[in-house]
Amino acid sequence: MGMNQMPAANRIHIGFFGRRNAGKSSVVNAVTNQELSVVSEVRGTTTDPVSKTMELLPMGPVVIIDTPGYDDEGSLGELRVRKTKQVLNKTDVAVLVVDALAGLTEVERELTEIFEKKEIPYIIAYNKADLLKEVPEANSREIYISALEKTNIHELKEKIAVLSRIQESEKHLAGDLVKPNDFVVLVTPIDSAAPKGRLILPQQQTIRDLLECGAVSVVIRETELKATLAGLGKKPALVITDSQAFAKVSAETPADIPLTSFSILMARYKGTLEASVQGAAQISQLQEGDAVLIAEGCTHHRQCEDIGTVKLPRWLREFTGKNLRLSFTSGTEFPEELSSYRLIIHCGGCMLNEREMRYRIQTALDAGVPVTNYGTAIAYMNGILKRSLEVLPDIQKLI
């Protein structure tokens, strides 16, 4: 996969934070060598987080995020600060931009405390160092720079790259579950919510992962599964299905062939599967009138048979026999207050990076609310969760 084609969710997210007029946007522009952010002498020019996917050497594919001033004031300022805090939930590496003339203030100290609490690696970049009579000696986490004169910008990028490499890891969606030349059948119903001519992202990523691991992908619709299994001439090592077709695919896949779903594999990839498996049992405990949140990490045009807003609610009613109070969120919006919910069902999170998915799961658990994901919930309601986890014995033992 070319760097420019890498999904944003798989890129290192680098956030630039600090007070108004510290020169965050100037530093972002200097680091990226682009006019990514508007620069002005007026305090608080950046009013909303500005994100851009790009290739940035020596890091490679990244998402650069410029944030509003953390010391913004008034009701609008509070909104901007809240948006900045949301950015923190998906930041892999933070750059704290400080006005070198003013030095560290309570605002910067609060931000470093948040970085440390959230275990976000960070660098303190003292900007406007060209205005200092003498540049102090910096420790390993600090650097004195000048966005105006481009001083030490390359060195700053090198420091970011070191922290970025710490965040990277060799993970697989499915390639570690099979051997080279194994057949893997991928059941991919044509999703009306996907752009015409494209597969949805988890399917694309799984195919690429299997290619890199030397396995053979056989991509079919659910209507062709029975004929494909009969005609392959070789038993597949694994069948991976879209969760919406779980029941049909399970019924038509012999018991000696491992079966799972794209959503379950995506949850494993994002590090949230264990919580999702444990949370699925809460579906059986739901009572009349209980509040359930169904959350998606992306926004798309709602179809008449949309899985999040139509199919899951219908399956929940049929399984529980209860009238539930359902709420829905999508995209970057995720409630900070979750204690009123009895259960949260989240999508696989293919459009969210691992740090944000982990944040959302932990926020639910901290509020005492069980959380599961689409694929795990659907498998549970169809009585096939144990089977869908056979290929992942460390997770299956949690049931």
What does this entry show, briefly?
By secondary structure, the protein is α/β, with parallel strands linked by helices.
Describe this structure in words.
This protein is of the alpha/beta class. The protein is 34% helix and 18% strand. It is built from 14 helices and 14 strands. It has helices at 24-32, 74-88, 106-117, 153-167, 201-212, 225-231, 246-252, 262-270, 273-280, 307-320, 354-366, 374-381, 385-388, 393-396; strands at residues 12-18, 50-56, 60-66, 93-99, 122-127, 142-144, 183-187, 216-220, 238-241, 259-261, 291-295, 325-329, 343-346, 371-373. The strands form three sheets. Strands 2-3-1-4-5-6 form a six-stranded mixed β-sheet, sandwiched between helices. The protein has a four-stranded parallel β-sheet with strand order 8-7-9-10, with helices on both faces. Strands 12-11-13-14 form a four-stranded parallel β-sheet, with helices on both faces. The longest helix has 15 residues, at 74-88. The chain is globular. The model is unreliable at 42-46 (pLDDT under 50).
